[in-house]
Amino acid sequence: MTRASARIQTPNPRAFSRRFAGLAVLLFGLVVAPAQAQTPPRADLDGAALALAEAPPAAVPAAKKSPASRALLDAQLAASLASPVEQVRQQAMQNIIFLATYRGDEVRFEQVVAPLLNVYLFGGNEGHRILAVTALHAIGDRYGMHRLRETVQDVNADRVRLHTLRALNDFYGEK
What we know:
Blueprint: H1 13-37, H2 47-54, H3 62-65, H4 67-81, H5 86-102, H6 113-122, H7 126-139, H8 142-151, H9 158-172
Helix pairs in contact: 1-4, 4-5, 5-7, 6-7, 6-8, 7-9
């Protein structure tokens, strides 16, 4: 075995930073900035700062309204799900769950359903498979939930199957 073939390839930190910097900026714009705008003014502010803090919030930024930025966020989340780094995939699923739960009307999730189904069907880690089910449930996509319904009996892991059945029961209701 040669020295070159024995090397383990590690992700390039600069490429990693550039790739996911856009996702961080979009998440900040969609989640953190609106939350900061809703914080009540502090009593220890001087007159000018207090007047500024009490002013009505500025109009929603154009990036938040833009369909292009929504599509970009969807693409960034899908790219994160395809990452070779396990922590990036896990964080992407957690971000999808958060965004679908709290900002579901502002974000499109068209490109992430298929990768989430792949994680659910072929992922080796039970925790990731449960995260994928939770993300699909939070999104509420009919196709994704239908595919879960078709494949739940083929799942070998009891915890994953139980979690899937609970999500399906919540989505479809008791029948």
